[in-house]
Amino acid sequence: MRIGFVVGQFPQLSETFVVGQMAGLLNRGFEIEVVCNGISDNHTAHRGQEPVATLLKRTRDWWGAAARARPTLRRLPPKLHDKLSTALDLTSVARLNGCDVVVAHFGHNGARAARLKKWKRLKPPIVTIFHGYDVGVPMHAGDLGRYRDLFRYGTLNLTVNDLFRRTLVGAGAPKEKVAVHHMGIDLEKIPYSWQSWRGTALQLISVCRLAEKKGVEFALRALGQLAARAPELAWHYTIIGDGPLRKSLETLAAGLGIAGRVTFLGSLAHKEVKGWLRRSHAFVLPSVTARNGDVEGIPVALMEAMAAGLTVVSSDHSGIPELIDDGETGFLAPERDFETLANRLHFIAEHPERCEAISREARKKVETEFDMERLDDEFAAILSQFGKARRAA
């Protein structure tokens, strides 16, 4: 069975879940075609390694040779841009029509495919996966109506959390066309290992892009409060990742008087990140809704930290409470509430034994609900059902 994936720029280091899902289908005997909005030349995307090397052989830009016109089209008025873009999209219809099912990652790519379906040019059923930005930003702008054609012509809309499912149904998506399908992690590659910080400094870590919705600002503010409230506590905070807010976050740490206890490492290779995680005790990701409405789905980084045995501290944000039960599999604070966050961190620092039991429950939670192998089996079954129905028709 052949599956056509419709994605943005490909491959992207920040969207490893897309490549992971494709690899899962390859391992189950599916053939993959990829139609993307630009082929990345980013060397950190491991272009020469598997499965990316195999996938790139079956990857085509939506517009083929006409992709060079993309920067010019971006300067056109929106209506003219959409009209010309859709016309150029038709150059990839033959490739997609050779597939049994089309899978679109992110709502805007599903809507793009649905326009071709509306024009009766695209034949396979469309399965669209919504991740976060594609729900939060249009919801904030009052523009979920942009998915009207997708709700009508798409076959199934999968959301990575239940909040998004309810949001899409509320925006007009038929209930029978919307379901939750979590993203997962490869548990075989993440051994569980818990280590106590009794008698040593608590090692805190964040691994994320330094953008607004990751909430690193509030982690720093919480630690500033903790340092003032309990100066005797020994801790260090390591931040891995880069992004537009790095300089302002470094300035904030200095202003809070904790710069000597905070290390910004920038972006690191995955192997190095794994090493830092093994040397850490608690993972901090107090995500927030960004000013433009951008939100998390359920961050894969939290799943990986929980699987590895770290105590996780996050926020009551988007789908995160579907992963973390406060006080049972981790700790949550309200968005932007750095005082409560400081309380959670203070508790963790003083109660490593209590955190060990929470850490074991966290691993069980991920094994039960976010195991990539099981989720890939379920996804493959969904696609097989639609593909067989299309062939029978």
Automatic annotation (TrEMBL):
Descriptive protein name: Colanic acid/amylovoran biosynthesis glycosyltransferase
Enzyme kind, highest EC tier: transferase
E.C. number(s) listed in UniProt: 2.4.-.-
InterPro entries xref list: Glyco_trans_1, Glyco_trans_4-like_N, Glycosyltransferase_grp1
Keywords: Glycosyltransferase, Transferase
SUPFAM superfamilies: UDP-Glycosyltransferase/glycogen phosphorylase
Annotated Glycosyl transferase family domain residues: 200-364
Lineage: Bacteria, Pseudomonadati, Pseudomonadota, Alphaproteobacteria, Hyphomicrobiales
PANTHER family in the cross-refs: SLL1723 PROTEIN, SULFOQUINOVOSYL TRANSFERASE SQD2
GO molecular function: glycosyltransferase activity
Source species, domain of life: Bacteria
Domain Glycosyltransferase subfamily 4-like N-terminal per the UniProt entry, residue ranges: 15-189
Pfam families given in the database record: Glyco_transf_4, Glycos_transf_1
